[in-house]
Amino acid sequence: MKLLIIEDEKSLREDVIEYLTENKYSCDFASTVKSGMMKLTETKYSCALVDLGLPDGSGIEVVEFIKSKYPEMGIIIITAANSLEDKLQGLKIGADDYLTKPFHLSELSARIYSVLRRRNFGGKNVLSFDDLEIDTTEKKVIANGSQMQLTKKEYDILVYLASNPTHLITKEALAEAIWGDKAEMAATFDFVYSQIKNLKKKLNEAGLKDYIKVVYGMGYKFKD
């Protein structure tokens, strides 16, 4: 899952990004309202972590922008200990959760997981599709009763496609969601094709054919 961290306190931002990256999230960051909104218009994110006290304005502006343009995105606001009014305003206009500084990184990770689970998986820990089960807590994939051995990227791709079963996902969108900013440096998206090919092969070998459909010239779609 791809996250946007909008925080101007450099040391906190770096700690958050390092911790979340270690926990298998892909992270981009911004330090101002302006740069945060620019990032949001350029890339699709699953969740945004928004500091309300930014140098060029209030993070409330960012929350309002997200809710108007990207209502499906999760939002967690970060507030100072004495900013109860801002916290309540943020929740009122649609933020999913909040954290008050200082906070434990493990708690942040748990809050992010909870928001994503509610938004992407309808509150469920296990996604079931006929003979396929994806346990998002244990990060396990069960096919026809047997656990599949997937690489991290293969697992991330499968979860991303499975969480958007009614959408056609372009190679560009998939690359941004799984590889983050690194995708922008690629001359082609052959690496996406390679990962999809390997994942489809493993699904086929497990008896799960046509779970990932290739729409030639357009992108990919998960089994309805």
Overview of this protein structure:
The chain is of the alpha/beta class and about 220 residues long. About 45% of the residues lie in helices and about 25% in strands. The chain contains eight helices and 13 strands. It has helices at about 10-20, 35-40, 60-70, 85-90, 105-120, 150-160, 170-180, 190-205, and strands spanning about 1-5, 25-30, 45-50, 55, 55-60, 75-80, 95-100, 125-130, 130-135, 140-145, 145, 210-215, 220. It has a five-stranded parallel sheet with strand order 2-1-3-6-7, sandwiched between helices. Helix 2 packs parallel to helix 3 (about 60-70) and helix 6 crosses helix 8 (about 190-205). The chain starts with a strand and ends with a strand.
Q: Which helices and strands appear, and what pairs or packs with what?
A:
Blueprint: E1 2-6, H1 10-22, E2 26-30, H2 33-42, E3 47-51, E4 53-54, E5 57-58, H3 59-69, E6 74-79, H4 84-92, E7 97-100, H5 105-121, E8 126-129, E9 132-135, E10 140-143, E11 146-147, H6 152-162, H7 171-179, H8 190-205, E12 212-215, E13 219-222
Helix pairs in contact: 2-3, 6-8
